[in-house]
Amino acid sequence: MHHDLQRRGLAVEKQVPVAITFDTLRIDAGLRLDLLVEKSIVVEVKSVERMIPVYQAQILSYMKLADLRLGFIVNFNVPQIKEGIRRYAL
Question: Which residues contact 20 (CB under 8 A, 6 or more apart)?
């Protein structure tokens, strides 16, 4: 996915670290965005039998921590890829 997005001319970073900030305290908790597209879209890549609520909580948390408004979860374990794409907005 990273390669294909770059091939289409988009700026894509993978495994982007995200820190937790509270007041003036910054905690590097080892959180990483799977993909960051054009510095504005979080993409979490999955390959799971079924989506569970923790995946939604994960992407929403990442979006809030990174101060980004748009995110996608892409699950590749589906018959047609369009069935595995979920969009989230803050």
Answer: 26, 27, 29, 31, 65
